[in-house]
Design a protein that fits this description.
Helix content is about 60%, strand content about 0%. It is mostly helical. The radius of gyration is 20 Å and the shape is elongated. It starts with 9 loop residues before the first helix and ends with a helix.
């Protein structure tokens, strides 16, 4: 077995430990899962991209809806949503 020592922000460590605990994992098990996924994927197991302008605008729109700055459109049925989407 090998040992890895890493330095991370204390808040990040505590928040991730809380989530791992809910999943029934310790930090060591969670990091082992991540490292195995790196090997299996031959790289980082998730996308690392700079969002384009359309995606950034969508993020802003969601934030505005959450904060109440913009009203979210609501639908009374899936059929109404599909009609609005044109599908």
């Amino acid at each position: 077995m090998a040992t890895i020592n890493i330095r991370v922000d204390e808040k990040l460590k505590k928040e991730s430990e809380r989530i791992f605990e809910e999943l029934g994992l310790g930090m060591t098990s969670a990091m082992t899962i991540f490292l195995k996924a790196v090997v299996r994927n031959n790289g980082i197991p998730f996308s690392l991209e700079i969002p384009n302008e359309e995606t950034l605008q969508a993020f802003k729109e969601v934030e505005d809806m959450i904060s109440g700055k913009e009203k979210a459109k609501r639908y009374s049925s899936v059929a109404d949503l599909r009609k609005d989407l044109g599908v």
